[in-house]
Write a structure and sequence with these properties.
- Helix 8 crosses helix 11.
- It contains 11 helices and 9 strands.
- It is of the alpha/beta class.
- It has 2 domains: 199 residues, Rossmann fold (3-Layer(aba) Sandwich), CATH 3.40.50.150; 61 residues, rRNA adenine dimethylase, C-terminal domain (Helicase, Ruva Protein, domain 3).
- The strands form 2 sheets. It has a 7-stranded mixed β-sheet with strand order 4-3-2-5-6-9-7, sandwiched between helices. It has a two-stranded antiparallel sheet with strand order 1-8.
- The protein starts with 9 loop residues before the first helix and ends with a helix.
Length: 281
């Protein structure tokens, strides 16, 4: 796609503003507007939504989201070098793009967004997983977002959608699948980026559920899952000793053999275990 708006091609934008990607910021820029528009479409109908974008860089995905009809975008960008390029996009789409300079781990975007809200981002590699965990573990549920359309390293994407019995299965899969429908919707090779990363990437789309898939106390469930997978090679009766002195009784009550290992236990069983543990508190 040579053009989706009246703005220059991304390579020209990067050259004009001297936006060489910085490894320290986890930057890998997508330059193909075909791809950025395709990613934007994975977020669904944006015409009635505000969109939160983290790490827009020179604005490739930003332009795709705007061209796909996003009502308004709030972009959080840590790299001040990118601000002039983003200002040009804002001028081309009056009233539809606001940019905040800051660290996405420290900025509270909710004061600047109006529901319904969707999140779409080519997340910087160095903060992507932490941001996802934050979005999946708010104090109250449902969360502020309807959906998350996020690019990760392929390995991280596979961890989000992993099933029991696989090496990728762990805490991230359980947190994501407990409260959302998660699926990989797009895969991208290293050469799609500038500079090319050493790994493949993938876009994951997560749709928030109204209620968690199975009942459980979030704090206890997270504690159980973390303990189980911190020592994933151990039997659960050993790895979960710190959770409860009566852990074997709780495992049996939840229908889990005490000799089972964490990677063999499904989400429903972990939730049953969390409910059993809560009964002793």
């Amino acid at each position: 796609m040579s053009a989706i708006d009246t703005l220059p091609p991304l390579r020209e934008v990067i050259e004009t503003h001297q936006l060489a990607a910085r490894k320290s910021l986890g930057q890998n820029f997508l330059l193909d507007l075909n791809l950025t528009a395709k990613i934007a479409r994975q977020a669904g109908d944006l015409s009635g939504c505000d969109v939160l974008e983290i790490g827009p860089g020179p604005g490739g995905l930003t332009r795709g989201l705007l061209a796909e009809g996003a009502r308004r975008i709030l972009a959080v960008e840590k790299d001040s070098r990118c601000l002039p390029a983003l200002a040009e996009i804002s001028a081309a789409y009056p009233g539809r793009l606001d940019v905040i300079e800051g660290d996405a781990l420290e900025v509270n975007p909710l004061a600047h967004l109006r529901p319904p809200i969707r999140v779409a981002a080519n997340l910087p590699y160095n903060v992507g997983t932490e941001l996802l965990v934050r979005w999946l573990t708010p104090k109250a549920w449902p969360p502020f977002w309807q959906s998350l359309t996020l690019m990760f390293q392929r390995e991280v994407a596979e961890r989000i959608v992993a099933q029991p019995g696989s090496k990728a299965y762990g805490r991230l899969a359980l947190l994501a699948q407990w409260r959302s429908d998660a699926r990989i919707v797009l895969s991208l090779p290293p050469e799609a980026f500038s500079p090319p990363p050493k790994v493949h990437s993938a876009v994951v789309h997560l749709t928030a559920l109204e209620q968690p898939r199975f009942p459980a106390d979030p704090g206890i469930l997270n504690r159980v899952i973390a303990a189980a997978f911190n020592q994933r090679r151990k039997m659960l009766r050993a790895s979960l000793k710190s959770v409860s002195p009566a852990i074997e009784d709780h495992l049996v009550a939840a229908g889990i053999p005490p000799t089972e290992r964490a990677e063999q236990v499904g989400l429903e069983a972990f939730c049953a275990l969390a409910r059993s543990v809560k009964s002793e508190i």
